[in-house]
């Protein structure tokens, strides 16, 4: 009798929770079921494709219940820009998934918020610029990576998947740790594998079960993401400990040295500067740049073999502006609008980050006439912006000329925001743009990119994950 009563109470509680889960005037969205919420109706892979269907069915703001958590997916371009501007949407959610990567604390520069986040972001950006982020001083490092890569691939049949990740990791790691690996270094290969596994381990929409149902942490203490994140954390910690042994505070070699010096200044006092925060900042920077930049170059090579006329125009632009007797420079960027247009069109067609890093609401607020409670998980669809028919006209077509104005100059577009917008703008945007431009122009100055004989055209459908990646394909980098 007691068991039956308890069972009845449990069922009634579940039904009550289900009925009251979505508050009144919450944005419309997929159906919900008890306990799971909207999870059974979420896409399993490449959820950014389904967001377009949701927008047609529910509107620009889609309400979901992810287990016991409320979520809003914003998939209308003007609403995405509005959310990125408004302060009340600039918090970060904090769940089991994020706790596991940040030592149970809300630290770092990507998944944190509040005064400590502001202090750490200011410090990090200031000193990263000193060591090359966005500066022409990084030019020689990027060109060194390009030269090494060219020696490896010249007139050879090459698998493009992850081809550029080694170069992008090397440039990032030199800024952070002052080290440049040889391309065959086992330690570098280990780091590349960790990063690849991390970004292929899930998707931004559904996350993992233990993040949505905290009680499962006692049943499923370690997810695939947890394991990969711990590997990356261990790799970074080893470098920090080595730096600490040889630190000369008067002559910092890299970002880690500068941060360790700041930690020593605050030793013995309450401070946001500590070893765990440094580890998480390094992970954040890798997350923001390493794999995404490499995959962007992979997609660029994909479109070069699919669109040989575009590749021919790229060669003509480089030959006309730079010639063959010197290497490209960042100073050439304003004179090569077609190169920039090709890069931007590839990024638009295959948005590397289909959704932003999740946002959260500081307070109860409204969006598009709907009520959005405090602590709502907010996901912004950058894919929806890049594929918006109303704005782009023919988003399904690869057409670099859409970024060129009538005078032949590069045209700015307010809806081209692959690095985000506002206070949450990606800290590595300048470095990423410089790296992609220099690597692309340097390779195309010397090579034509062709499919091996007998190979069919590769697919433009991306691999799923937190970031997208091209499917495996091979090319020949043929000397011009």
TrEMBL record:
Its cofactor is heme. Heme binds at residue 426. One of its GO terms (molecular function) is heme binding. One of its GO terms (cellular component) is cytoplasm. GO terms for biological process: organic acid metabolic process; xenobiotic metabolic process. Keywords: Heme, Iron, Metal-binding, Monooxygenase, Oxidoreductase. The keyword Isomerase does not apply. InterPro entries: Cyt_P450, Cyt_P450_CS, Cyt_P450_E_grp-I, Cyt_P450_sf, Cytochrome_P450_fam2. It holds the Pfam family p450. Belongs to the cytochrome P450 family. PANTHER family: CYTOCHROME P450 15A1, CYTOCHROME P450 508A4-RELATED. This is Cytochrome P450. It comes from Gryllus longicercus. The lineage of its organism: Eukaryota, Metazoa, Ecdysozoa, Arthropoda, Hexapoda.
